Amino acid sequence: MQNDPLAKFANSPFRSRFKLSLQDKAYIQQKGLDTIRLHAQDFIKTRLAPADIPNDGKQTPMRHHPVFVAQHATATCCRGCLSKWHHIPAGTQLTDAQQEYIVNLIMLWIEKQLL
């Protein structure tokens, strides 16, 4: 049996408090999961993937988009969290595979929130 990649976040009081709002769910319904995935890919590529992020730790809002909420819930919001929770070191450009891993984790969390 494969481990749930989201299980470790359920044990974190901070991470587990994040939930999609009704507004977030309506936005996803309106746009569709494919568009939300495109948004996640863009946010990760532009806000998280660069080796040097001048505002690291402050680049991801806590609300106003389902992907932002999911990033906090899955500790993919900044390079510090990526290092601590996912063992992806800061200070280097994220690879395509690392970006795909992050987007897939975000989308898994979002899809579970919609159940």
Number of helices: 6
- Largest sheet data: none
Q: Distance between termini?
A: 22 Å
Structural class: mainly alpha
Cα radius of gyration in angstroms: 13 Å
Which word captures the global form?
Answer: globular
Tell me the fraction of residues in β-strands, as a range.
under 5%
Roughly what percent helix? 55-70%
By DSSP, the count of extended strands is 0
Low-confidence stretches: none
Mean pLDDT: 93
Which series of helices and strands comes N to C?
A: HHHHHH
Which properties best describe this structure?
115 residues, mainly alpha, 6 helices, 56% helix
Written description of the protein model:
The protein is mainly alpha-helical. It is 56% helix and 0% strand. Helix 3 crosses helix 6 (96-113) and helix 4 (66-73) packs across helix 6 (96-113). 26% of the residues are buried. The model has no long low-confidence stretch (mean pLDDT 93).
Outline:
The chain has 115 residues and is mainly alpha-helical. The protein is 56% helix and 0% strand. Helix 3 crosses helix 6.
Task: Give the helices and strands, then pairings.
Layout: H1 7-10, H2 22-31, H3 33-48, H4 66-73, H5 79-86, H6 96-113
Helix pairs in contact: 3-6, 4-6
